[in-house]
Design brief:
The structure holds two protein chains of two kinds.
Chain A: H1 2-11, H2 18-26, H3 28-49, H4 56-64, H5 76-92, H6 107-118, H7 131-139, E1 143-145, E2 151-159, E3 162-171, E4 174-182, E5 193-195, E6 199-206, E7 209-216, H8 222-231, E8 232-234
Antiparallel strand pairs in A: 1-8, 2-3, 3-4, 4-7, 5-6, 6-7
Helix pairs in contact in A: 1-3, 2-3
Chain B: H1 3-30, H2 33-49, H3 60-78, H4 102-113, H5 116-126, H6 132-139, H7 143-164
Helix pairs in contact in B: 1-2, 1-3, 2-3, 4-7, 5-7, 6-7
Classes of the chains: A alpha+beta, B mainly alpha.
Chain lengths: 236, 165
């Protein structure tokens, strides 16, 4: 009978079968096998997390399915062709004064959506950017940073019609998303403190930008906010 | 809320909750980012079209995986046999997109050496978090077979990884 539990410790170490849990409680060797297996699966999970990030075109296509599903049966190549045509069209119309009604008007909701959207890859792949790379990105927002020790990831994002600098910091065990959003986007609502069922955040107006910090619900954002305040310089 | 906007909201929550897992699962099935993107996109398109059939939102993960596995199988049905030069083949662990450490490379190599009958239940368990019963249902196998395959998969992984040391 005991041998079955040893097999179970390997094949299904998270099993909640009462007999297995009782066996674990009374057999230290079995517990060690189970813990070793769990550690191996955690390592495997980290491997799966190194999957390349999906392209923005793919994410946009997935998001647009509920608006216009027929278009989405096309492959990415069709989208690239369309994108090229649109680009030509936009370039030829560059004197038209587009207003920005297309972007999400609610800054807190936008950053919550953006954080959920990037959950599977932001701060997971392509990590630990160099200081010069981050400062090159921040320069267009009139900012620079002193230190990238706690910085996991950075990207210029175009999400929900809003271009922003997206940085991910490691703060203890939590990943903290930081967005620098130009205030030239006219938001109808900007809440200083906000949250949903998974995340919470703060918004601060700095020079011509909004600095938005979003972390897991319940995580104390004060220390990382203070760190960012100290390390991020404006008006360069 | 009207029917259409309720459907849209349901779809958006599915994307939010499961896109990452489906993408990872598909990538490790196909080893190709472009194919993965097409496969996941097709999965969500079919999910959107058939969303009314999803009566229980708690069953969404299994439902999406079923669609994705079916789509992947279709890919092989459609696939024409083409001959390529061996030098053109890219081995997964040499993919520039995966900036993993040596340990990850060893793990990836071991995982890719597993046959599909062992690799798939292992991925369903580790990536998707399915229980033995759920994997059995998903793969149309009995639970004992799944448990045996998981056990052997993990033993093989351990042997393959030890041989890399």
């Amino acid at each position: 009978m005991k041998i079955d539990f040893y097999q179970m410790a390997i094949s299904e170490p998270h099993s909640q079968c009462p007999d297995f849990l009782a066996a674990l409680a009374s057999d230290e060797k079995l517990r060690l096998v189970q813990q070793q297996q769990i550690a191996e699966e955690d390592a495997m999970l980290a491997l799966f997390d190194s999957t390349p990030a999906p392209s923005q075109t793919h994410l946009d296509a997935i998001a647009a399915i509920s608006s216009d599903p027929e278009k989405k049966s096309w492959s990415i190549n069709n989208y690239l062709a369309i994108a090229a045509s649109v680009l030509v069209g936009v370039l030829s119309l560059n004197f038209i004064d587009f207003n920005q009604e297309q972007h999400n008007q609610h800054l807190a909701n936008h950053t919550l959506n953006h954080t959920s959207h990037g959950h599977s890859y932001a701060g997971v792949t392509d990590t630990h950017p160099s200081l010069s790379r981050v400062n090159l990105q921040l320069a267009s927002y009139g900012a620079r940073i002193d230190d990238v020790d706690a910085l996991l990831w950075n990207k210029d994002c175009d999400y929900e019609g809003i271009t922003s600098a997206h940085l991910v910091y490691q703060d203890q065990s939590a990943k903290i998303n930081v967005y620098v959003v130009p205030d030239s986007y006219q938001f109808s609502e900007v809440e200083k403190v906000f949250s949903d069922e998974r995340y919470q955040g703060t918004i601060k107006k700095v020079n011509n930008n909004y600095l938005v910090i979003v972390g897991p619900k319940g995580h104390d954002l004060a220390p990382i906010s203070e760190r960012i305040d100290n390390e991020l310089h404006w008006n360069i | 809320m009207n029917k259409e906007s309720s459907k849209k909201q349901k779809y958006e929550s599915l994307v939010k909750l499961y896109h990452g897992d489906l993408f990872r699962y598909a990538y490790w099935l196909t080893h190709d980012k472009q194919v993965t993107e097409d496969l996941v996109q097709e999965t969500f398109l079919r999910a959107w079209r058939a969303l009314e059939q999803l009566a229980d939102i708690n069953a969404a993960k299994s439902w999406l995986i079923t669609i994705l596995r079916r789509e992947n199988a279709r890919r092989f049905e459609r696939k024409q046999l083409t001959l390529v030069d061996i030098d053109d083949c890219v081995v997964l662990d040499e993919d520039n997109d995966i900036e993993a450490g040596i340990e990850n490379k060893v793990l990836a190599r071991a995982l890719n050496m597993l046959s599909n009958e062992y690799k798939e239940p292992l991925m369903l368990q580790v990536v998707m978090g399915f229980s033995g019963d759920e994997i059995a249902k998903q793969l149309g196998l009995n639970k004992n077979t799944v448990m045996t395959r998981l056990f052997r998969a993990k033993k093989q992984m351990a042997i393959l990884m030890a041989s890399e040391d």
